[in-house]
Amino acid sequence: MSNIEVRIADWHKDNADLRRIRERVFIDEQGVTPEQEWDSQDAGAIHFLAEEDDFAMGTARLLPDGCIGRVSVLKEWRGLNVGEALMQAAIAEAERRGLQQQTLTAQVHAARFYERLGFRAVSDEFIEAGIPHIDMLRTSE
């Protein structure tokens, strides 16, 4: 990573960037329907944006119950540890809020990435939005 920084985003003020990233990754690349991607939990979630020189290339969200989701990085920026920076920020914010357990629903192909961050599988594989997923849990020490 060069000058990539992760910050807490404002759902309303940063909405265009949050939507642009998630639409490109989930809707355009992965074929998730808009109805599946956008839900009522976005308004109450803590959103994160990864940026370099004011260009947003990644996002994630943290729900009040400690569930981390919608982790997405634009294709051109993958492999540069943007996803890891987003996850570290979300985990740190969850812990700061006293959420000692963080959960997520991982696409199966990304499970090893989350395992490196301390998550472990807690479910069998299942299909969500046409994509194989697995539920994962991380417990803070």
TrEMBL record:
Keywords on record: Acyltransferase, Transferase
Protein name per the record: Putative GNAT family N-acyltransferase
Domain of life: Bacteria
All residue ranges annotated as the N-acetyltransferase domain in the record: 4-141
One Gene Ontology molecular-function label: acyltransferase activity, transferring groups other than amino-acyl groups
Pfam families in UniProt: Acetyltransf_10
SUPFAM superfamilies registered for this protein in UniProt: Acyl-CoA N-acyltransferases (Nat) (SSF55729)
InterPro entries: Acyl_CoA_acyltransferase (IPR016181), Bact_Acetyltransf (IPR050832), GNAT_dom (IPR000182)
CDD domains the record matches: NAT_SF
